[in-house]
Structure formats: C-alpha cells, structure tokens
Amino acid sequence: MEKEPFLMHSKYGVKIAALLLLIMGCGLVVGSLAALTAGLIWNGEANSAGCMRFIQAISTVGFFALPAMFFSALVHGNLFSFSKINKKITWKFTRTVLWLAIALLPLIALFGYLNEQIQLPETFTAIQEWMRAIESKTNELLKLLMNDARISVLLLNIVILGILPGICEEWLFRGTIQPLLQEKIKNKHLVIWITTLLFSAIHLQFAGFIPRLLLGGYLGYIAIWSGSLWLPILAHTLHNILSIVLNFFAIQQDVDTEHFDPLIIPEFWPVAIVSAFFAAYGIYRLQRMSAIKKLI
Fold first, then answer.
1. What share of the chain is helix, strand, coil (3-state, %, to 5)?
2. What average pLDDT does this structure show over 157-164?
3. Is pLDDT at 113 greater than 70 in this prediction?
4. How many structural domains compose the chain?
5. Could you give the residue ranges of the DSSP H alpha helices within 104-124?
6. What is the pLDDT of residues 238-250, one digit of tens each?
7. Residue in 1, 179, 226 with CA at minimum distance from that of residue 75
8. What is the Cα–Cα distance from 216 to 214, expressed in whole angstroms?
9. What is the pTM of this model?
10. In this predicted structure, what is the pLDDT of residue 295?
11. Measured over all CA atoms, what is the biggest interatomic distance in the chain, rounded to whole angstroms?
C-alpha cells in the first residue's frame, strides 16, 4: 500500500506552520550555504558583482522555490501538483499577457513615482525610514549588478534578476500561499489581496509598495482565471525583463533611475492614458476568456 503524504490530512493550522517553517528553514540554510560558498569562490572579493549574482540566484531558489516544492511534496506527494505548475496555458491567454506587459509599464512607473511622494504619519516614521534604508541598500546592489555595458552581463542579469525571480516568487506566492489560503477563505478576491499584501511587504521596499501591490493583484487574478501558474510566471518574468532592459539603457545614458520623475516628460500623460485604456481592456479580455473557459 502506497504511503500517504505526511501533511495530506493535517489540520489547516499545521499546514500553515509547516509552510512558514519551510520558508524560514530553506531560506536560512540555502542563504547561508550560498554565502559560504561564495566566500570560498570569490575569496577577497565578497562584494564583487559576480559574487552578489551567485548569492542572489541561490538565495532566490532557496527562499521561494524550494519551500513551495517541499510543501507540495508533503501535501500531495508530488513536487509540482499543489502549485498547478504542471498545467498548461492557452495561446489566447499568453498573447494577451505579452502585450499587457508593455501596456502596464507606464502605469507602474506612475504609481511608483506617486508612492515615493507619500509621507507616513510621525507614528510610522521609524518604520518608513527603516524600509527606505533597506531599499537604498537594494538599489545599491542593483546598481552594482547592472552598471555594466556588456550585453553578456545584461543577458546574465535577465536570467538571475528577471527569469529566476519570476518563476520562484510566483511558485511560492501564487502557486502555494494563494491556493493554501483558498482552502480556508472562500472569497477569492480577499485571498488574492492577502497574498498580494504579503508579496509586496516581503520585499521591504516602501517606494515600490503600491506598484508591487497592483502588480501582485494582477498576477493573483490571472492565476485564478487561467487555472495555471505559468501565466503569472510569464507576466512577472516579462515585467522583470522589461524593467532590467530599460534600466540597462537608462544607466548607459546616465539617467538617475532611483529618483526619476516621469511627469517631466511632456508625452508621459498621453502615453499613460493610452496605457490605462489598453491595460483595462487586456484585463477585461483575460477575465472574459476565463468566463468562457468555464462555460465550455
């Protein structure tokens, strides 16, 4: 007789606790191993771009993908089935997400700028300053990794900072946390926005909180509408890649991407309005395709 997965019939609270332990355990162990290995390989050059890329890549897999895989194995007896990463998506969904990735960029830039203008009440000043300090360190790391004009480095950054986080982060958030919450909370909208809040908060970046919140909401809905994890993975990865490529060319032109004000561009508002129209149409189209898919 085949043995049942360890957490298949466990209480909901036990599953939540197990996932939290997996995230903390895998993140700590893999992150520590990555740092130690990098120290041996890049002896004396621990702050080099190559070393940072190595640590970033291994830590991304350890903190996001491994917990999701192990949790799926404990609940379903399979590394992939809980997240629905083994389910295919149709070309209709795919092509809509492809052009939506471009349509959403001006809106994300706008909300990012508006987010930077927000000042929290004095009660939360310490929290805001703490998050800004972490964000500043993150921006310094990104500059270190991206301040290189070589196309080979750009392609490497696309893999490590674009494709890998797109897959691993979605595997954990839309592939594991969101469906786990759905087991207890029947309101799918509430589930999506709880997952999105966690997704945005875990990055500890104040200036990017609102655009990441909106992006996360979009990813949560298309995960449910398509019934496959591959669609939010595709959307997330495309957003990352486009951001990396734009940053690459901006840095080559000495543009201050950290404090960039899109409103100084005369053509920005017409572009933003057109972007909003196409984004709304694209999201409506995805929702309609989901409704039709359920009727068939």
1. 80, 0, 20
2. 94
3. yes
4. 2
5. 105-116
6. 999 999 998 888 8
7. 179
8. 5
9. 0.91
10. 47
11. 70
Length of the chain: 296
User: Could you tell me which of 208, 213, 241, 239 has the C-alpha nearest to residue 105?
Assistant: 239
pLDDT given at position 219: 96
Query: Where a domain ends, among 56, 80, 104?
Result: 80
Indicate whether 195 and 253 sit together in one domain. Answer: yes
Non-local (6+) Cβ contacts of 226 within 8 A are 89, 90, 93, 286, 290
What are the C-alpha distances in Å from 54 to residues 30, 61, 89?
12, 11, 31
CA distance 29 to 291: 43
The boundaries of the domain holding residue 64 are 1-80
Query: How many C-beta neighbours within 10 Å does residue 208 have?
Result: 20
Whether the CB-CB separation of 67 and 22 falls below 8 Å is answered with: yes
Same-domain check for residues 188 and 285: yes
Q: Report the pLDDT value the prediction gives residue 215, as an integer from 0 to 100.
A: 93
Question: Of 28, 63, 80, which one is at a domain's C-terminal end?
Answer: 80
Given a cut of 50, whether residue 91 has pLDDT beyond it is: yes
Residues 74 and 109 in one domain: no
The answer to whether 194 and 36 have CB atoms below 8 angstroms apart is no
Rg (CA), the chain: 20
Pick from 285, 257, 287, 40: nearest CA to 147: 257
Three-state DSSP class for 84? coil
Residue linked to tokens 């990104």: 142
Contact 165, 145 (CB under 8 A): no
